[in-house]
Amino acid sequence: MSRKIIFLLFFVVFVLRAQQDCEKYFEARKAQLEVQTREFDEAKQALESYKASFEILQKERLEALSKKEAEVNATLAQIESLKAENERLLQEKQRILQTIDDKTEGRVKEIYSQMKDAAIAGVLSEMDVEEASKIMLSLESRKISGVLSKMQPKKASELTLLLKSLDNNTSN
């Protein structure tokens, strides 16, 4: 029986020692897990802090971008408004110039139609051929033939050729 008791004592000691070893192992493992948990918590806090600062930075950039976009849109609207105003002013200017041209052309035609052929021939002979041809085109055909007959042949032929080319261009 004493062998059994020794064996049993030996077994109990072995089990107690194994239990102590397990407890030490588990305590060591628990300490490691606590350190890892603290490290994970610190990493999690750092990540959350980084995420929060990133979100704030992103929000600030989006606000700045929205502000710039609003400024660009306001500038574009202003440019469009100025463009429309410029187009309106240009059309008004063209209308006024056309009115002036029409009145001037009408008055020039009226003045030249009342002049004698020789006087017109003298004035047009001194003018540039293109300007003289514009005035000639405003006159009646009968008046043109009278004026050309009073001009020097060289000037009359230049005007005739220019009138012919202008007449061909307007009829095409």
- Head-to-tail CA distance between termini: 141 Å
Which stretches are low in confidence, meaning pLDDT under 50 for 5 or more residues running?
none
* Average pLDDT level: 85
Q: Which term fits the overall shape? A: rod-shaped
Would you report the number of β strands? 0
Compile the SSE list and pairings.
Elements: H1 2-114, H2 117-126, H3 129-138, H4 141-150, H5 153-171
What does this 3D model show about the protein?
- The protein has 172 residues and is mainly α.
- The protein has helices at residues 2-114, 117-126, 129-138, 141-150, 153-171.
In short:
The protein has 172 residues and is mainly α.
Key words describing this protein structure:
rod-shaped, mainly alpha, 0% strand
